[in-house]
Amino acid sequence: MSLNENSTYTLADGTDIRALPKVSLHDHLDGGLRPETVLELADGIGLELPADDPVALGAWFAEKSNSGSLVEYLKTFDITTAVMQTREGLTRVAREFVQDLGADGVVYGEIRWAPEQHLTRGLTLDETVEAVQEGLEQGIEDVRADGGRIRVGQLVSAMRHTDRSLEIAELAVRHRDRGAVGFDIAGPEAGFPPSNHKAAFDYLAAQFFPATVHAGEADGLESIRGALLDGRALRLGHGVRLAEDITIERQDDENTYVTLGTLSQWVKDREIALETSPTSNLQTGAIAAWGNDILDHPFDLLYQLGFRVTVNTDNRLMSGTTLTRELSILADAFSYDLTDLEIFQLNAAAGAFLPIEQREELAEIITAGFEGS
Question: What residues form DSSP beta bridges with 23?
Fold first, then answer.
């Protein structure tokens, strides 16, 4: 059974959020394992775990992830990556990943992961990508067999604290016609700027291969600036600290008056998508400057100001969440209705790393699904 499969999330008008067509742009493969799968794969390699049943293990991941620190949050991935070092493990995790997206109403998903973290048992970089792609394709067939529809692509990521980014960029481009749709850098943000990976981003630009960059999560405006200038990012992974470049001048009962800085104005005017992940942003302290409650999240401010905000899960296992749940949390906090949720999905469709014709087709699927709800 996938995470939160039996939970019900509805809007104020009774609309079942799970049944709505959704787009997922920021979802880590090694952060979306089922607890029972972690247990079974760990048993096969003799890996000791902090709990021996799925419920307790899921609770352990959630507890350890709720630290207020991205560095501490990332430590939980030592376990998930450890069970994803074989072709069989990677393929199974990828297959179940797509099954769970399909069960959550996702019609298009981009799955990000770092091949360089899956080489300890003899796989080559290309073999890891092929193993994940095999699982993704199996998952797509499973969703279709259940009467659903889904399309997925790989966001091949390099770890920003290592020196393999050019090699990983070349790997992503090699697989651009075999599942890879984009590139990312992930891992600890502060102290590891995109400028460290200039050769990789230069290569990607020369190959016209799109990149999204984690920025504005554990570091501030300079990190976002580096993602745009050095990384040529077409989207910002999280990007919530862009709100530091927005000055609230005054508020009254009906309006908030703000001034945008040069950086935030650029992101807004260029319609650069922000890949926000509300629960994760709370867990990692990304919104600590504004508070520690979902109502403090700058998501609504960014949305009301016209930024291209999107809603994502980041890591479903660590955050104990689904895309349906994230949308429900925001709807409850900010009184969003069906129209708002549709805008978030259309924003994500517009930001997807797909050809324009396929983005337009995706938008039509979303519109038709929301109209029929």
Answer: 108
Q: What is the DSSP letter of 311?
A: E
- Domains delineated in the chain: 17-371 (3.20.20.140)
The 3-class secondary structure across 98-152, one letter per residue, is HHHHHHCCEEEEEEEECHHHCCCCCCCHHHHHHHHHHHHHHHHHHHHHCCCCCEE
- Put simply, whether the predicted model's pTM sits higher than 0.90 gets the answer yes
Q: Which residues pair with 259 in a beta bridge?
A: 247
Place of tokens 């799109």: 210
Instruction: Measure Cα distances from 12 to 16, 61, 333, 337, 372 in Å.
Output: 10, 31, 12, 7, 17
> CA-based angle 197:203:207, to the nearest 5?
145
Do the bridges between strand 309-311 and strand 273-276 make them parallel or antiparallel, or are there none, so unpaired? parallel
Enzyme catalytic residues: 217
Residue-wise DSSP of 187-242: S--TT--GGGGHHHHHHHHHTT--BEEEESSSS-HHHHHHHHHTS--SEEEE-GGG
pLDDT tens, 66-125? 877 877 887 899 999 999 999 999 999 999 999 999 999 999 999 999 999 999 999 999
